[in-house]
Amino acid sequence: MTRHLKILEYALSSLVRRKYKNLAIIAVYSFTIMVLASILFLTHSLKTEAANILATAPDLIIQRTVAGRHDLIPVEYVQEIKKNRGTGKVQPRYWGYYYDAVTEANYTILGVSGTPPELALVTGTAPAGPGECLIGQGVARARKIELGDELILVNSKGKGVLLNVVGTFTAAAEILTNDLIVMPEEEVINFFGLPEGRATDITVEVRNPNEIQNIAARIKRSLPDTRPITRQEIIRTYDAVFNWRSGMMLTIFSSALVAFCILAWDKATGISGEEKAEIGILKAIGWDTGDILELKFWEGLVVSLTAFLLGLIAAFTHVFWFSATILAPVIKGWSVLFPDFRLIPFVDVYQIFVIGCLTVIPYIASTVIPSWKAAITDPETVMRG
Question: For the packed helices 231-252 and 254-269, what is the interaxial angle rounded to 10 degrees?
């Protein structure tokens, strides 16, 4: 053990002697890992947020399509849908998007009866009458309002609507409630000017999860102008969108990957004359080939682990402390119009393991292999170059 510690001590002193070169390598190395980890952390966090949201989503969402586009659905479709065996609670939903010119953000306005079970009140009560609303934390921060304050919005007729904030809420996934404004259903109908007997969509509860696809097919046959959307289809769509956007970001930052590949290739094709002379001297004073390889292994491990940890810390700070300021506009897409929200840290250990295998192991190999070639050569030949 003492022998290995002494070799490690010599490896550290050797790195310190070439500190400027090693610091440059660590800087490039860390930046490469930070870019890779930031993209993976952000994508995984958003996908986990989406999964948390959809865990409480309806089994089926029934939309009406006209000319291939989403349209308001007749409320009487509820009775037709209830005729299908296996369906549970079927109810229309009233909701829509609202662009707030004051904060330049998109809000989601939802009509409810009582408080939705997936939402947890932080303070206050649920809206029980006209002119009352619940707001998300993002809306409260953007409009700088608190419980008991007034929120002014402009309805579809261009008239100002004064709402009393009776509560704020949160959920396991902040992205679900961050931009949300909850009002009584009648208030939402009047705010958007929805025609009588029309809803935004209809939600369907299915008692047997194995029958979701069959019930969706029967609803489509009985109501040809509808489009049933299952929860699993929404989950797959989120995964596909985030995977595509993260792949696009990896392509954009491919220059960092190219820089790292050049660095690793340069290390693998040879070592400097100074390093060769050092190896020759160590061989001449009694070091064997195994000691040389262990020395270079420790050097590569120290550099790669330092860069790896610095890159992960920088990526974690960038994504979860600074809300992925650089990457968020591309990964989140149009959702950047939402008020800012903090991502909940979700880190996949498997992703960290993959990043480590793709970066740490190649660098250590590119450090040890050239040194092995020099270590098995006659010391005098090595020192003469």
Answer: 50
Q: How many CA atoms lie within 13 A of 111 on its CB side?
A: 22
Find tokens 């590119």 and name the residue: 366
Backbone Cα Rg of the chain: 30
Residue ranges of E strands in 194-341: 198-199, 201-206, 226-230
How many C-beta neighbours within 10 Å does residue 265 have? 11
Residue 86 identity (one-letter amino acid): G
Name the burial class of residue 315, with classes exposed (0-12), middle (13-18) and buried (19+) by CB atoms within 10 angstroms of its CB: buried
**How many whole angstroms separate alpha carbon 385 and alpha carbon 381?**
6
pTM of the model: 0.68
Q: Which of helix, strand or coil describes residue 198?
A: strand
Q: For residue 76, give Cα distances in angstroms to 79, 129, 223, 344.
A: 6, 25, 11, 41
Quick one: tokens of 50? 């989406």
The C-alpha atoms of residue 234 and residue 57 are separated, in whole angstroms, by 10
Side-chain-side CA neighbours of 237 within 13 Å: the count stands at 7
Most distant CA pair in the chain, distance = 95
Instruction: Give the pair of three-digit tokens for residue 121.
Output: 């009140």
User: Which tokens hold the place of 184?
Assistant: 């009584």
Per-position pLDDT tens, the chain of length 385: 777 788 888 788 888 888 888 888 888 888 888 888 888 888 788 777 777 777 778 899 999 999 989 999 999 999 999 999 889 999 999 999 999 888 888 899 999 876 665 666 777 887 888 899 998 888 888 888 988 899 999 999 999 999 999 988 765 556 677 888 999 999 999 999 999 999 999 999 999 989 999 999 999 999 999 999 998 888 887 777 666 666 666 666 666 666 666 666 665 555 666 666 777 777 777 777 777 788 888 888 898 899 999 999 999 998 888 877 777 666 555 444 455 556 777 778 888 888 888 788 878 877 777 777 666 665 555 555 5
Contact call for residues 95 and 101 (beta carbons, < 8 A): no
